[in-house]
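Repro:
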Amino acid sequence: GQNMIGIIMDNELKRIDIFKKGETMYFPLDSDGLVGANHVISRNYVIYMVKNEVNNIVFKEKPEAVLYPIGHLPKSELTLKGFKWFGNYRPENKSDVFKKWKLKDLEINN
């Protein structure tokens, strides 16, 4: 999303509020295993975390969603459009969250 707010309690990320058109790709499971891939676009939603894993997602407005069954997921849908992973700059401690990076110094791993 354009804006995100993360809530951290007891050194764990508990909640992420996403505002202004966020995109989510997740892989739902049932008792038999992987169901497929769910690609969702929504203006405002909340992701609830438990032990650093997604526990629940609540969409505040009606989302646009497509659930691709296993084996029917187009390769183009495996990643979010425009997504860039900056893994080298992932915060490792509290002070890293407030560290300022210059965009020109960032290496894109995609």
